[in-house]
Amino acid sequence: MENLEKGKFKIESHIGVAISDVNGRYYNGDYEAEEASFHIVSEDDKECSIVEFKDIINTYDNFEVFQVASDTTEKEIIELVNSNKQWFDDVISWKIENPDENGEM
To answer: Residues 12, 38: contact at Cβ < 8 Å?
Structure first.
């Protein structure tokens, strides 16, 4: 799975994405996946923004910006997600199908 690098943003698909299960624990394939968290690094690489996709059992469309780095805005993060929606969907699906590749944040 390829990393996402757009403008000042970067997400590493292997370590910058973590899936949790319906019990709120690290997803390992034993229970259904519930939530996906994306660690988004921006220009200064000292802070990150975090986007969480909720209820991924039913849809990949329900996300919220959980944390915003000081060198960006929530609007920029939302635009990043919306303009790269297929990449986010593909990574979530790939992580669910390959629980051994689940990242840790």
So the answer is: no
